[in-house]
Batch of 2 targets.
Target 1
Amino acid sequence: MKNTLHIYLEYEIKQNFKPQYKQIMNNIVETLPQYDACNIQWEKSDAGSNRYIERFIVPTESHFHVLKRLRTSRRHLLFGLLDECICGGLKEINLVGLKT
């Protein structure tokens, strides 16, 4: 892929929402390719923390802007489910896109 964007999301989840969070994330990982995302990775940031990192690649800046809006929308039927799992809600997601 030429001129792609690497997307990084980082956030902390609430301890008591871990099982629900993992189920939602499994669905998100399956859904992201519908938005032309590839090389999707999702992992815990540190062994003892509740911080998680997501990484994936999108083909254009437009894809980045659309996904940024959707991933931080409480109204999205799938992505919005994370609002109650993340400390401070979706607005606390640190989301960065890096051009390659």
Target 2
Amino acid sequence: MFLQTFRSWHIVGRLGGCNSMNMQLSQSTFEKRPNYDAIQGANVTPSTFYNIGDFEIQDNLARVWVDIGTTEPLLLDTLINALTQISSDYVGIKQLVFGGSEFENWKENLTSEYAGYSVHKI
């Protein structure tokens, strides 16, 4: 489930779906039928996901490297919302950490599936 969540998040982000500069419908009232201005949408500054690495798992830890460029806050909120729901409905996530390359329990030299390590392409 985690791998599919990160894949979906990456696709939506790559397509510019988390651009907080273009929030036409969420910022409008619904007193009448919603109206989306495609020209306005096309003229906002693009905000896209740049790159994502492999999804790595060691025992009960997981990590993934991402390059989200200018750090679009809506992109991170979208991921956190999805992971919060997964944590609530399926498995309890103890901690979510952003940034940095070191995590106290992560073993950089562990590369064997027999030792509890696996890597998955996003």
